[in-house]
């Protein structure tokens, strides 16, 4: 599902302005494809799991998804200021979250 969100951001410029948590209000995932909702969804149930910081890889990925709109790949999530790609995800997360 995450990789299909990356594909949506690559193909739809409107989706690039939305955070991962905002996508369900504007798109529906149907038959392995994202489709734009005909009307805005105001009564949508969208869940993102709560994670413990001890599960560092998932925790920091969740933090990135909550703060970076329009990610197109895992490499995109590791970028700082769209220039430098960081090799370690937690450092990149701290840099992005502190700046925002």
Give a description of the structure.
The chain has one domain. It has helices at residues 2-11, 23-26, 56-67, 74-77, 89-99; strands at 27-30, 33-36, 79-80, 84-85. Strands 1-2 form a two-stranded antiparallel ribbon. The chain has a two-stranded antiparallel ribbon with strand order 3-4. It is an alpha+beta fold.
Question: What key attributes describe this structure?
Answer:
about 10% strand; about 40% helix; two-stranded antiparallel ribbon; alpha+beta; about 100 residues
Q: Helices, strands, pairings?
A:
Layout: H1 2-11, H2 23-26, E1 27-30, E2 33-36, H3 56-67, H4 74-77, E3 79-80, E4 84-85, H5 89-99
Antiparallel strand pairs: 1-2, 3-4
Helix pairs in contact: 3-5
Output the number of helix runs: 5
Query: What is the first-to-last residue Cα distance?
Result: 26 Å
Shape by Cα distribution: globular
Instruction: Summarize the main sheet.
Output: 2 strands, antiparallel
Low-confidence stretches: none
**Helix-strand makeup class:** alpha+beta
Number of domains: 1
Number of DSSP E strands: 4
Radius of gyration: 14 Å
Order of helices and strands: HHEEHHEEH
> Helix amount, in percent?
40-55%
Short précis:
With 100 residues, the chain is an alpha+beta fold. It is 41% helix and 12% strand.
